[in-house]
Protein 1
Amino acid sequence: MNNKLFLKELSKRCEITADEAQALSQSLLDIMQKQWQEGDTISLTGFGVFEIRKKNERISVNPTTKVRMLIPPKLVLTFKPGVMFKEKLNDKKL
Amino acid sequence: MNARLNQKQLADLLYNASGLSRNKSEQFVKNFFEIIEDELLKGEQVKIKGLGVFKTVKIEERESVNVNTGERIVIDGYIKPSFTPDSALKDLINKPFASFESMVLSDFQAEMISSSIDSSEDNDNTIDDETTIDEESVVIEQSVEEKAEIEEITIEEPETVKEEEENAVDEQLSDTEQITEVPEAEKAISAEVEAEATAEPEPVEEVEATVEPETIEEVEATVEPEPVEESEPVEVAEPIAEPEFEQEVAEETISEQESEEIAEELEPAGEPEPIGEPAGEPEPIEEPVSTTTISSERIDNKNVISKSKRNALRVLVWIFSLVLVVLLALYMLYPVIIQQYMKWQYNSLKSDDNTEIVVEKVQENIAESVTEDDNVQTDDVVAEKVSENEIRTISEVSAEDITRGDPSEIKFRLNSADERKDLADFTVKDTVNYEIVGTLAEHTLKKNEILTVLSEKYYGTKKLWPYIVKYNNFEDFNKLYPGMKVKIPRLKNK
């Protein structure tokens, strides 16, 4: 499912137009991004947790050239699925 | 900051941002994630622009071991939802650290950093636990900037070092000039030292003379560790030569004066001990000492900025000069000491000789009378006491001698047989246990005959050769020649 289909589905469920859905989703994403930039965690019950994690700097060695590289620290967005979500996924499969 | 937002709060924020009703915004947020969930449940992936891709990953079942029981367990495979953020979103979130780039490290840097990372590894927590991103980022930025600086410094270092070297060389040049001046100044002080050296070290010197090598080694030991710091062997080496020479010359002049004084002082008090040899030996040691000290001095000179270091340098110079002076003095005294030693030995020999002469004079008279009696007696004694082998040899020898018709020789042989008999009892005993009792024989040396051979021939043992030396008063018993007449002393057990 791509972005277009997603928005279409969203507009259908919320009974709003596609344009509105796009605008709203955009504003929602902006809000989330803003929160993440401030280091906030967004946890959605039944779905999962979006969390910003800091990866420490580290030294990696290129196994072929043996050249050591310093990988700088960075911030990454991680998603940890909720227990309910995982169970649902696996139940359905089984 | 580090807040934990739930769905409701998110909806509130959306409500504030958009003109949508509170209800609708809540519903929107709910639907937003429900669609993702539903799609994932269908086994599809969801791609949302500005957020990322949600998809399901199937984890295969795998075997593991229960840590407690050691049993093998099969962990069932399962489906896991995964989320990969958009690259745009990634960049946005990593904005604080965006300035950092991965860089290639040298080994040294790698070690430095790995140690620092090890220490900071405890901080590898989520941002929730940490204070603020901004503060942290500042700290990290600093650290990385520092590393960058380190790199810059490492690059710059060679140049700076070169500059320093140049400066050092300049300093050295100026220092050498100073040193050329210093000896002159030193001479004034050296006068004092002379006084000291003549006054104080002299009694010590005698004691030290035997211990000298050790003391020098000690000096070396104290001096040597310093030149290890030497970093520019070539550049330093050249300037070393000149000041060394100058100093040595300056000190030699001093030491010559001194040594004369020392000689004067030592001669009356001079003990005839073999000081000369140990004193002579250290000479070769002297040179390495001087070079090392000077090299260390050079290095010191390089670094000399503070007065304390200058003082330390002066102390070194003084120690070095003192050692040199002492060595030179001993070197100059070497012949004197040797002479003394020789005299002493000569005297001791003379005294020995006197006693011997007295003994000989007393016993010669007796010996002359005794020898004849002895000869008569020995014939009897030989028949009685001497072992069968000896009897054979003697009889053979005597037979031979008789055939030659040399009665004197027979006498000697018989005498020697007599001596042998005596020696048979005392062969193992010390050679000191005998006295010279007149002349046993006069032997004309043949080729390849040495004193031990004579001793063996006349006394039956090699041990007694020193008596032959004693009796003959050889100028040098190592220089005997064929045809030389050697008197063989008659020996008697004390």
Protein 2
Amino acid sequence: MPPAATQVSATRATASEAPATKAPQNPRVALFVTCLVDFFRPSVGFATLKLLEQAGCTVEVPRAQTCCGQPAYNSGDRADTKAIAAQVIRAFAGYDYVVVPSGSCAGMLRKHYPALFKDDPELAAQAEDLGARTHELVSFLADVLKVKAVAGAFAGTVTYHDSCSGLRELGIKQQPRRLLKTLDGLTLTEMAEPEVCCGFGGTFCVKYPDISNQMVDAKAADVEATGADLLLAGDLGCLLNMAGKLKRRGASVEVRHVAEVLAGLTEQPGIGEGVRDRQARPAAE
Amino acid sequence: MDSTSRSFKDNAKTALSDAQLRRALDNMKEGFIAKRAKAAAKLPEFEALRDQARDIKNHTLENLDAYLELYADKVEAAGGTVHWCATADEARAAVVEICRSVGAKTVTKGKSMIAEELALNEHLEANGLVPVETDLGEYIIQLRGEPPSHIIAPAIHLNKEQVASDFRARHTEFPAERQLEEPQQLVAEARAVLRQKYLDADVGITGANFLVAETGSSIIVTNEGNGDLTQSLPKVHIVVASIEKVVPTLEDASAILRVLARSATGQEFSTYTTLSTGPKRPEDPDGPEQYHVILLDNGRSQMLGSEFQDMLRCIRCGACMNHCPVYHSVGGHAYGWVYPGPMGAVLTPSLIGVEEAGHLPNASTFCGRCEAVCPMRIPLPKMMRHWREREFERHLAPPAVRAGLVMWVFFAKRPELYRFATGLKAMVLGALGRQRGRFAWMPLGRGWTAHRDLPVPEGRTFMELYDERQRAPVRDGIVRALRRGPETERRDAAGERDAA
């Protein structure tokens, strides 16, 4: 994979294209980094920072963040989910926006927190307020800040997997594709079924490993059939799952979070790759 | 029907290693998904119709008692009899009693999932009756002694070679050397066998897609016309239907019919949409002499007013399972009871208990595709989560899963401790896996690593690296000051004064 990103800058839409509710000029944005990015791939966090700062945001990282609570929520543990959610609501109060490099976690804050606290006199309004201010990274850039293009380059063919929550809860489909296509040299090639779940599903992949395997195997075959050099998605859970399967199948396709490519931060090895793969790869043209 | 839902994991494992099933599921998936998408795209008001269909059912469920009573009155007024049955046992007994009262021997059956829920065939056989399924798919699986694997395509798990082989084994009245390679040949043979059964039958049993309160009619949709023959040729027609099938008016049924076939098979309408209202009237040239409705509750009234009420909007189109990646992986039989796929994952625990069917709502990634295509806009993932909550409250989840969750929650609620623990773990794993970039094996992580590698963390957490970055200017300032020492500081200050 030729890491060919150069100087990157974001262009903002002209005022005439701005939406009815205009974004503040230099919004104060809190980054919800997500537990998976924090632990597995901090590079995605820094790519997010870079993209937001380029777009004119002042970014802060509230320290009292751990996880959005989905592992508890999807395990039926409502009480602990609410405790964790309340912690997030407090930590992220007062910012213009909360931006998350994950459709799944953004969906949790946007859609599920308000539902969780619907009947809670103390937190209902705050949960609604946080939900309204929270955005997944790429949809924030494209839909809220009206970023039309990222100046930069990426020489290679990429394919994009639509992570389920981003696609179905938040309507993220064209935004990442539109921005990716503005990178010089990037060719986008679609899978036969980009919208089909990869089989990650949080705890699902370890609770039902055989079914999850069938799903990720089909996904990996679909990715390989595109002939793309690079697989991108907006959610690290799906990416870890797909990268793990592609590597196990011996596929050569590289796997990255979409933010890394948009920010031009692709020096570090792809997901599931080590120093060894990096050395073995042919040098960039 | 007896359930094997407890063994879902083993059922799934068996299904996953069945190459023939894999091919059948791949074929099914392609057909249903493309056809539904095309049908929905062709109808500009499809999304609005979904809203309308949802609202009709919501209104009906809010007033279910009134509409059921109205329906029953209309059935009686048309000369039919309604048998209110709280349980499967009561329903089975009622059917057998009707058959006995007319001295029935052979019973033809149209496709009915309620009959599956009642395990009606076994029960009729046990009472000396001969049930004959007339829907082709149902007929095939009856020959094989299997339950349906899909609610609208019961034999979708089979290929035509398997069917040909079943026909050869069972239809011994035909010449052994006959051709059965083409689907048309199979259909023709089934048709020839079934024609006589329709004429022989004493009782015809059908299900119902809708019960219409204003007229007391039941409506069935079929593509084979088998339902019409089943309900009009024998002298007794029994409709078996569950209470949530009722809609207020014919207009309402028509509205929902517009989304039903499109969601199910991608047809604008099924080939046959057949209404039946009471027995043959004096002026009618033909029709059944007796008309009975078995109105089954079997746990549904308990769902009213609960977080599972929305599930009662289901019209059994099968779109959720047609679009479900878990169903595509394991097929319908793995679910272990009558209703597979996402609608089964919600309905089955309601009807047979979450102790029995707890796996079903857990075996979902919450990908949301089922809800996205459900014509009745049933929030299936949300209700699967509600089942997980019920399980969690009752401590039904496996102890290991629960212990893991408790530990994770402990850290997730304590950000400082969480940062320390994740920082340490990322460092250790990062150092261990840096060269290869992935682990092929991980203690406690076999569920993951049995099938795929685990990508290695980069080695430092974002929070650590970000803290460092934030502290860097302060740190650099202090270091600069220390390097220069107090003397230099003073000289610098003096120099600045001089310059000024």
Protein 3
Amino acid sequence: MPKVTINGLEFEAEKGSTLLEVADFLGIEIPTLCYHEGLSPYGACRLCVVEIGVGENTRLVTSCTYPVQEGLNIRTHSERVVRTRKMLIELLLATCPSSKVIQDLASKFGVTQVRFKQEHNDCILCGLCVRMCAEQMDGKAIGLVGRGDDLKITTPFDIKSEQCRLCGGCMYICPACQLRCQGPDVEEAVCNACLNLEPPCLESWDDAMCYMDPCVACEVEYSRKPKVKKEKTSKEQS
Amino acid sequence: METEKIEKILEENGYDRAGLIPILQDVQTEFNYLPQEALSYVAEKLEIPLIDVYCVASFFKSFSLKPRGEHLVTVCLGTACHVKRASSVLDEIEKRLGIRPGENTEDMQFTLETVNCLGACALAPIVVVDGDYYGQTTTKKIDSILKTYKRGDKKE
């Protein structure tokens, strides 16, 4: 049983557990975004950073992936950690300003301004949907395709995947794209539409799949509707 | 799609899941690119999800999911080459072939690609055609380089 010091508190942690699990057990709150109890840790969002080490020799690590070690000195809320977290939230907010999850994080941690160019993406590449699909739904229909700047989450060849059962798990767990699929009738969409386990467009299009880029159902519907309507909806959203 | 060819490649590699990259390399050598049917077939035979094969195929720059021309022309745009005016060499090749990087010529003879560094900076600016390195290229040399490949066409 490795002994660790967390925020000055000595604790005998279970071997093999992660720093996040130790903090969670002790009731120390560490914000997370790409972490989910039922899925394997991924360390993509970096929000769960903690500072380890002593003296001048400290460094930041993601607590969701870092296993406990004998004699580890952990600080979960040092000045450096808090500053880093705020910066990360600011960057996430610039990537995906319409995400409620990220907006909530920003308000909780006092991020009141975004100094970066807003990109209005609908994906922060946290990989939650990919892990949800593979680990919980046994689907393996979507994955991280490409690399670097071109990295995106999609199906093989951007076409409907045979592995996809349209369970909607990917959309359910997504922290960024609740607005991604509201079906063809955007104007009639009610609040909490994001909590639909089934994409609403399925009623009209049995071949729809949100992760196709762009979604076939939405594209077909949009091209049919007069352009005025589309502009109106985009204004409403912004 | 000629499944026998892929089957042979898989056999040579011993149906090894860990050997996905060498398998894809062999498939690419066979077809000059990675056809969609080939990837599906490889995924099915190795019993791995298609998305995993697709992720690997899309990750590496040396794999192409689009058909490629007979000869692959690669221009290095790394720092050293950039300083030695690789961009004007690229412009010249673009003009000669009439294509942009990532495109094929209409007769499918050439494919133009750029690369960030080939590690042969002493030879900057460097152009590679089908694995043959042409160091210290200038816009004037482009014509003769391309000519050798045009003539060495399969018309013989």
